[in-house]
Specification:
The complex is a heterodimer. Helices cover about 40% and strands about 20% of the residues of chain A. Chain A is α+β, with helices and mostly antiparallel strands. Chain B is about 40% helix and about 20% strand. Classes of the chains: A alpha+beta, B alpha/beta.
Chain lengths: ~950, ~170
């Protein structure tokens, strides 16, 4: 094996010098002592304080180890309460003295290396791993030469290099990052060995793949605390294979979490969306426990809507949506349920300026962790560690734990755990507070929505562990470094939960919760998620970053999955206010396949929502002069369409019409498609008997009257297809194909019900007054409905007249970045060959077996260059089709754009909520596009070509797909 | 264009006592955020009406409102709203109330700003430092017959989201 073709995953290892490679730590400690003690003696005499000499173990490890000299002097003096600024050039004098002392000792005593470290370095080198060394010591290179170890290192950064290059010393990551650059390796692919707290912190800040703490005695806990992934007593604890195993395990763990370091107020709203917790019943944005002034820590309960209010203070100055006025037009946001305020000896902790801030979404257990450090005036610091979740085991329950640990003893710490929002009117204008009568120790917030009349009750109890009581306000003294742990149960009920008294239900629920069960409640939540992951997880050997992003997407899809039959999933889930929580075709076409094959109960609820809103769809069809049921393009509670008709720009008075509500009627066929896909994937005959067939019948009825007769065939006129840039078009290929499928499937389903469940069939026919001849009429309409076929070149015309439109040379900068002037130029765009998102191409995406590779290729190559991907739904569809066509580069590019849509830091709209439909589309692109999964008699199977479609670097992909009640493991391996 | 640092002590002299209405260019970029934040503070303090302007410039260099717009009638109002909310999150009621109008324009930024300033009788133009370096805005700043305040971008907060390249 050549040196460059090593079999290990770890590509480089960077070692610290003192205490890791060499026994110089003792030399350094002794040199520090000889440098500090004269100063300390003089200081103690002049201040009439007892002389406390430098401790070569405790003081060395805690205050100077690993730091650049001057910084070490400052830190140590501060630890003794000595203001170095009051002592002239003390820092420089002590630093110089230490250098001299160390040099003398080095000359006199020599230096020993740790043979186990040298052995590990040699073994790693033999396996082709690149080796680096980083030390704050200015004598680093000298020591390497003296010990004869210099040839073992491919890159060295010592104290002199740090100073010359102007790098920041440890705990800043600069030196390690520079060393990784010299080694030509990404930090994520490298490991670091460090014995100093500052060094471990530096490696942590540099995001290295594995950080090994080396504890030569008494430092284990401190090394763990600052971020060591593992702590060893010496390199003898590991050989190269064990190190590589630990490295892999560490990266696998990293792919199970999303971590944010630092707090940027400008990105905070986006982070709140990404770090939202939810369980389908409710969602809470991921704001910090101690809120910032501008936090949007909304709590949203699925299915609770109110009439749209114009309190948006800014955009409503410019935009006014006209029409779509409904009692249930806007998802209601309720106050933040994880709020705490902390005051230390009279000073309120300022969350906007943390000293350190880390927010971690643990995807495996669906818990959000925060680890922050704040300054508390001149009283030292406060470390806040918290975790929270929306219980997957008990959908009405939120759990929160907050540990507060102060550096110094304080006489009077106050914690206010009240959920009362002082800005209720401004922040949550839909809510009116209602009077409550709660017993002591229980806090209840009870609200009514302004116009829709729903009631929301948020009840909570908070305790301090060990106190034995529940309180809203706490006041207590604290000891230094002894954590105080608060725990909170929050229970939420609404008047849509089948109870006349949500408040009584919430209080009864809350009353049953025991503090002794808190940990068990967290475990039950985690167990539920573990079961979800058994089907939802996708393992990618060689693709940690993709694995992490897929898990993030699955996390959000499951966090928002419908948990009741009267709710579905809004365009931005329960993570943001955008789209007002409206429900689109996104659910049936983009999300449903994910749920069908990972969590069929969630898929069932989403479809029962469509059955629940069938009366609204019937009313809509009737209002349009048609029979049957026509689903709303934007739907909320009743099935009424809540799409605005016009958007008005107040500054100019200009009105821009919105055609989607009236014309994007394919949503009705999309719902029918979802019903059939669910039935096929689950075999759930009971759903079809009770609801599915009725949906198919009523939608088929609608189409039978919506289609119009032409000279030879029937047509569907005046529609908007998935490409929303063109309105009032005739015979949109996607719409007509979907309608034909709807009609055929309705005929098939009726035949099945009549044959298999005759009593149910008769009951349904009577209930909806279905004429015996109607199903045959549907089939006839399907047979005579014009569905554009491939032309001589294989291309299917998107709608009648599309080929005659004006050419539009799409500028590269407009692809994937549709400019806002698309909104202004709606009339002009209607005349151009410019497509917003996959339209005709949706058909081979949904019905791959009906399109040959030749026809698919012809259409992909024709339409893809015309598409600006103005919708987040578009890249995933193109990724799936490009993968099938073997267009690897395009497939990977589109898939990556879709995969990282919300996690990517170049997107600008995740602050408004995450994109669950894009997430569902991404999953479909992987499963049906790259893996080419199809289901036959033997269940789902991957395509024989899948192995050739895998992105470079992926060694294998494994997942599990639920199919008709069974789980099918799938694997593609190079 | 006269350049000077404006603060509470010299604002009167630089802007003139009659400054009642200001236009601020909101780009969605960091320098635009800084301009808006400072403009809101100044406007609240001095009782100035603030008109926020976002210009969609086809082929231009100003950041667009959103990369994807699944439904423009939902996306753009919310996105513009967020432009303001994220910048003045903890602003006082007076700061928030100071923003009396938010105008979305289409076209070249300089002519759009010129037009809004003329229509609204604005006394002051506030832009971010990066926008000020763009040729057409630079030209506008040099010939506009009103005081111009160019706001420097703040340093970036230390921030990392450990995804993608952090694991690759």
């Amino acid at each position: 094996m050549s040196a460059t073709q090593h079999p290990l995953e770890v590509e480089a290892v960077i070692f610290d010098l003192d205490g890791v490679l060499t026994r110089t730590a003792e030399l350094h400690a002794a040199a520090w002592k000889e440098s500090f003690d004269p100063f300390l003696l003089e200081w103690s005499e002049s201040h009439a304080e007892p002389f406390r000499p430098f401790d070569v173990v405790g003081d060395y490890l805690a205050h100077v180890d690993g730091l650049p000299r001057a910084e070490g002097v400052r830190r140590f003096l501060e630890s003794r309460g000595i203001d170095h600024d009051d002592h002239g050039d003390a820092v420089a004098v002590i630093s110089d003295r230490k250098t001299r002392q160390f040099r003398e000792r080095l000359q006199r005593d020599g230096v020993e290396v740790y043979p186990d470290t040298v052995a590990l370095v040699e073994e790693l080198r033999a396996l082709g791993v690149r080796i680096g060394l980083v030390t704050s010591s200015r004598h680093g290179r000298d020591i390497l030469e003296r010990t004869g170890t210099a040839p073992l290192f491919d890159a060295v950064i010592d104290g002199s290099d740090i100073q010359t290059a102007g790098l920041r010393g440890k705990p800043a990551p600069d030196a390690f990052s520079r060393c990784a650059e010299f080694l030509d390796v990404a930090p994520a692919h490298a490991a670091v060995f460090e014995d100093a707290v500052a060094g471990v912190a530096a490696a942590k800040h540099g995001s290295f793949g594995l950080i090994v703490g080396v504890d030569r005695g008494g430092n284990r806990a401190a090394l763990h605390d600052v971020g060591a992934d593992m702590v060893v007593t010496g390199a003898a604890d590991l050989d190269a294979r064990a190190l590589d195993r630990a490295f892999r395990e560490c990266r696998e763990r990293a792919a199970w979490r999303v971590e944010q370091e630092g707090l940027d107020p400008l990105r905070e709203h986006a982070m709140e969306s990404l770090f939202a917790v939810g369980n389908g019943y409710m969602g809470v944005r991921g704001a910090p426990d101690i809120l910032l002034a501008g936090s949007q820590g909304d709590l949203m309960v699925a299915g609770i809507y109110d009439r749209k209010r114009a309190e948006r203070p800014y955009s409503e100055h410019e935009f006014l949506n006209v029409g779509g006025d409904s009692l249930h037009a806007e998802l209601v946001s309720a106050p933040y349920p994880f709020r705490i305020r902390v005051t230390a000896d009279g000073d309120e902790v300022d969350a906007a300026h943390p000293i350190a801030f880390r927010r971690t979404l643990e995807l495996r257990t669906a818990t959000l962790h925060t680890d922050a450090r704040f300054g508390v005036g001149d009283r030292g610091g406060l470390v806040l560690r918290s975790k929270r979740c929306a219980s997957a085991d008990d959908h009405h329950l939120l759990l929160q734990e907050v540990a507060l640990c102060f550096d110094n003893p304080l006489a009077h710490v106050q914690v206010d755990a009240s959920l009362d929002d002082p800005d209720l009117t401004k922040s949550h204008p839909h809510l009116v507070p209602l009077p409550v009568d709660a017993k002591s120790g229980v806090e209840v917030q009870r609200y009514a929505t302004q116009e829709s009349g729903y009631e929301i009750c948020i009840a909570s109890r908070t305790t301090v562990v060990g106190s034995g009581e529940d309180r809203r306000d706490w006041a207590f003294p604290v000891r230094a470094r002894e954590p105080v742990v608060l725990r909170r149960y929050v229970v939420v009920y609404t008047s849509r939960d089948g109870t006349d008294d949500p408040c009584a239900a919430a209080l009864a629920h809350l009353g049953k919760l025991e503090w002794s069960d808190f940990d068990a409640a967290l475990e039950r939540h985690a167990e539920r998620w573990e079961r979800l992951w058994q089907n939802a997880d996708v393992r990618i050997d060689g693709g940690y970053a993709a694995e992490q992003a897929l898990r993030f997407n699955s996390y959000h899809l499951h966090s928002t999955a419908a948990r009741a039959p009267h709710v579905s999933i809004g365009a931005r889930a329960l993570s943001g206010r955008a789209y007002e929580g409206h429900i689109f075709w996104d659910v049936e076409v983009f999300m449903l396949p994910f749920y069908i094959h990972t969590d069929p109960a969630a898929a069932l609820n989403a479809l029962r929502y469509r059955h629940h809103t069938l009366d609204g769809a019937r009313a809509r069809a009737h209002a349009g002069g048609h029979r049957g049921a026509s689903y709303a393009w934007e739907s909320t509670v009743t099935g009424e369409d809540v799409t605005p008709r016009v958007i008005r720009l107040k500054s100019t008075g200009r009105e821009i019409p919105i055609f989607t509500g009236a014309q994007q009627i394919h949503v009705t066929a999309d719902v029918a498609y979802g019903v059939c896909r669910y039935w096929e994937g689950t075999g759930d005959d009971a759903f079809m008997r009770d609801a599915g067939v009725e949906i198919l019948c009523e939608t088929a009825r609608y189409w039978a009257t919506r289609c119009v007769d032409g000279p030879l065939q029937r047509h569907i006129r005046g529609v908007v297809g998935p490409d929303e840039y063109h309105h009032s078009v005739d015979d949109n290929a996607y719409t007509n194909w979907m309608v034909r499928d709807n009609l055929e499937q309705a005929h098939r389903a009726v035949a099945w019900l009549a044959r298999e469940r005759p009593a149910a069939w008769h009951a349904l026919a009577e209930r909806i007054a279905l004429h015996p001849g109607e199903p045959a009429d549907w089939l006839h309409v399907a047979e005579t409905l014009y569905c554009p076929a491939p032309g001589p070149d294989g291309v299917i015309e998107q709608f009648a007249g599309f080929f005659d439109l004006e050419d539009y040379p799409l500028p590269a900068e407009e692809r994937l970045k549709a400019p806002v002037h698309r909104l202004f130029d709606w009339d002009r765009i209607n005349r151009l060959k410019l497509i917003k998102q996959a339209d005709m191409l949706m058909l081979p995406f949904l019905f791959p077996e009906r399109f040959s590779d030749e026809v698919l290729a012809a259409n992909y190559h024709y339409y893809e260059p015309l598409t600006d991907h103005g919708s987040s739904l578009s890249p995933a569809v193109h990724a799936a089709l490009a993968a099938r066509l073997g267009l690897g580069t395009a497939a990977r590019r589109y898939w990556r754009q879709s995969l990282w849509l919300d996690l990517s830091n170049v997107m600008t709209n995740s602050a408004l909520g995450v994109h669950p439909a894009c997430m569902g589309g991404t999953w479909q692109a992987l499963v049906y596009g790259f893996l080419g999964v199809t289901a036959g008699d033997g269940g789902p199977a991957v395509s024989a070509e899948a192995v050739d479609r895998l992105p470079a670097g992926w060694r294998s992909v494994r997942t599990t797909v639920r199919w008709r009640g069974r789980d099918y493991p799938l694997e593609v391996k190079r | 264009m006269n350049e000077a640092m404006i603060g509470p002590d010299n604002a009167e002299a630089l802007m003139g006592p009659g400054c009642r209405r200001a236009v601020v260019l909101v780009s969605g970029r960091r320098d635009g955020d800084a301009a808006l934040a400072y403009a809101a503070e100044l406007a609240a303090e001095r009782g100035i009406e603030l008109i926020a302007v976002h210009v969609d410039s086809a082929g231009g260099t100003l950041e667009r409102a959103a990369h994807y717009a699944d439904a423009p009638h939902h996306e753009y109002p919310a996105q513009l709203d967020e432009f303001v909310r994220r910048v003045v999150p903890g602003g006082s009621d007076a700061e928030r109330a100071a923003i009396t109008e938010f105008v979305l324009c289409h076209g070249e930024p300089a002519s759009a700003l010129r037009s809004v300033m003329a229509d609204r009788g604005a006394d002051l133009l506030i832009v971010g430092a990066r926008a000020a370096r763009e040729p057409d805005i630079d030209e506008l700043l040099n010939d506009v017959e009103r005081p111009v305040l160019v706001v420097r971008s703040p340093g970036r907060e230390p921030f990392r989201l450990k995804v993608g390249k952090w694991l690759e």
